[in-house]
Structures are given as C-alpha cells and as structure tokens.
Amino acid sequence: MAYSLDFRKKVLAYCEKTGSITEASVIFDISRNTIYQWLKLMETTGELHHQVKGTNPRKVDREKLKNYLEAQPDAFLTEIASEFGCHPTAIHYALKAMGYTPKKKSCTYYEQDPEKVNQFLKEFNNLSHLTPVYIDETGFETYFHREYGRSLKGQLITGQVSGRRFQRLSLVAGLINGEIIAPMTYKETMTSDFFEAWFKTFLLPTLDRPSVIIMDNARFHRMNKLKELCKEQGHRLLPLPPYSPEYNPIEKTWAQIKKHLRKVLPNCDTFHEALLSCPCFN
C-alpha cells in the first residue's frame, strides 16, 4: 500500500529523533525494510513522494559533491543544493551517508605572515630541550545568565536578569604541560610594570627547570626587559609571530574556563567561587 506523505514524514522524523528504526517500525506498525526504502528515497531525491515503478530518481553525484566541498567546505546546504539542482534535504542525507559532519571552522588571520611563522617554528624546534611555558591574559564577564530554556510549543518562557553593569575581571597565567600556573586576577588595565611584576614575582619562581617562555607581542610586553629577567633565571623568551594565537594552547584553556563559567556562575555566590571550581585550578 502507498502510505501518505504526512505519515512518511512522521515516521522519518521519529527515526531521526530516537535514532532507532526498529522502534519506529513497532510504533507505526510498518516493516523496517519500508523505513529503509524511505530513507533511501529521501537520500537520493530529497523527497518522500511515492515513486511509480519504472521511474529513475536522479542521485546526487557523490564524487562531484566531495570535490565541491573540498573547494567550498563552508557552503550552506541551500547553496550546495542550488549547485546540484536538488532539495537541501537530499544533500543532507548524502553528506550524512558520506560521513560529513558540521563542525566549527578553525580559522587563522589573513594578516599572518608565513615567513614569521616558519621562523618561530624553527626557533621553537631549536629550543626543544627546554620546557615550553605559554603566557597569556584574558577577560571575563562577571555576570552570566542562561539565555535559553524549555517550554511547550507556542508558549513564551520568561526569566529575570540584573539591570546593573558588572565590572569585567581579567586573568593572567601561564600554562605548562597542560596545567595552569601562577594565575592572578585583576581589575585594573594591564600595564608593562604590572605585567613585569607578576612575571618576576609569581611566574618565574614557579619554574623549577630551564624553560622557553612563549607569549604574544602585546603592547605591554616589553620584550627586552622580559628577556633580561628570563636570562637571569636561565630561561629563554620566544615571542609568538603576529596574528598567530593558534600557536598558544592556553587559548583553548581560556575557552574551556569560559564554557565552565557559563554553566556554574548563575548558581555561585561569587565570581571567584565559580572560577576556582574550574577543573584546571584543582
């Protein structure tokens, strides 16, 4: 028998939601083979209309699709579908069958100089006998609220937030072997004197072996002064090439901390309580 289009859509929606074809076949009292046929139909044509025997629905050329994505990996489904002359759903199922998944792009800056990057990597490799220590600063909003919630379809979900302005808090720290060292929070604007005091008083005393200290070229990083401080303690200073944060792994640590804060801060009494609950500080 030919099932209605609405019924077919309902069955496939259930499969997509639960991930179980077997369960859907029991719930809707149809064979698993029928569901597989509908999935195949959706994949090849982008539609679920009943196919008359003898017709030959056009398939997405997967080799062509692969080549297209290599050239334009960030194209929208609608853009790809327009290129291939089919429905976006057909592209969705084709990509799924080919093993493609959406993911966030890892971007670099246009302004990055490849020669300076290569020089940095060369120097870094020449200092491989030293322990790398990565330095950076970051800032936090000290007030978070959860912007999303759940309610029945068509019903508004409400909440309350503070109308006050909250001061940002900054953090400077080092990263060695994946662990945060010498963390210090501050409310002031970072200055060269402030940074050098932290560098000399808090960071250097934590380093118990010769290290190569890596940081960006922020305006308050007076490299000549910092190199002198490093040399006195038997360390080396290696500036990052401009526009190259991807070579400083502490950037990922900052992202993890901020993700944790969004989760726990609404339920903590103070910002520092939330910050210290981060796994990297324990």
Radius of gyration: 28 Å
**Total domain modules:** 2
- For this structure, the CATH topology of the largest domain is Nucleotidyltransferase, domain 5
Number of strands: 5
Main sheet? Answer: 5 strands, mixed
As a percent range, the share of strand residues is 5-15%
3D shape? elongated
Q: Percent helix among the residues? A: 40-55%
End-to-end span in angstroms? 63 Å
Number of helices: 11
Look at the structure and give the mean pLDDT.
88
CATH class of the largest domain: Alpha Beta
> Which structural class is indicated by helix and strand composition?
alpha/beta
Weakly predicted, low-confidence segments: 52-57
What is the helix/strand order?
A: HHHHHHHEEEHEHEHH
Strand order of the largest sheet: 3-2-1-4-5
Name the CATH superfamily classification of the largest domain. Ribonuclease H-like superfamily/Ribonuclease H
CATH structural architecture of the largest domain: 2-Layer Sandwich
Domain Tc1-like transposase DDE: 133-263
Domain Transposase Synechocystis PCC: 1-116
Organism: Streptococcus parasuis
Protein name: IS630 family transposase
